Amino acid sequence: MHRIAEDIISYAIRNKVEDVGSFAKKIFHPHFDPRSLESKEAAKIVESLKQKEVNKGFFFQIDEYIESKKRKVCKGMLGVYGQLKGRLKAFEIFRKRPITFDCIDYNFYNDFIEFLTFHYEHKRRQEVHYGLKVNTIGQTIKQFRIFIKDRVRRKIIEPIDLTDFKISEEEVDAIYLSSDEIAKIYRADLSSYPHLIEYRDLFVLGV
Asked: Is 17 left (phi over 0), alpha (psi -120 to 50) or beta?
């Protein structure tokens, strides 16, 4: 039986099955004939396991998540999901190893925050800048948490502890016009400048 198990494991490794244990459990029994490993049945089990591995892939699940949201959210939110995927993909390239659900822990969170803060490359106009603002990073972590919880809720992945995945934010100065100021602009006499009336109305409507 030990020899049979070795033959099954060797076959799985040769065929690049990542979950060798699951393959061995599916196919092993005390009277198994190793010669049947070359049968169509064994090949089907290998393909089945490989497909499951693909379906559990991190970025495959992000694509599935975005697809499931297309009829439920506006285009702007789809753009937010796309940005999340792009930042995670950039992080994967930066860290030089694949992102999997198994690797998501507090160390992953810290490394991701550091990457977004100091190393993430993005363009403003024609210039390249590194690092995102605190609130932008906070929104990225917020959407990441929502995505993970969705996959857990659907029983696609095992529960992941996100307690320490803090959503950072900072106060910003909001510049706005009061109702009285908007009313004054709307009532302003522009009879001497009729070409500005249309722009004034559009401005007030936009506010």
From this structure: beta
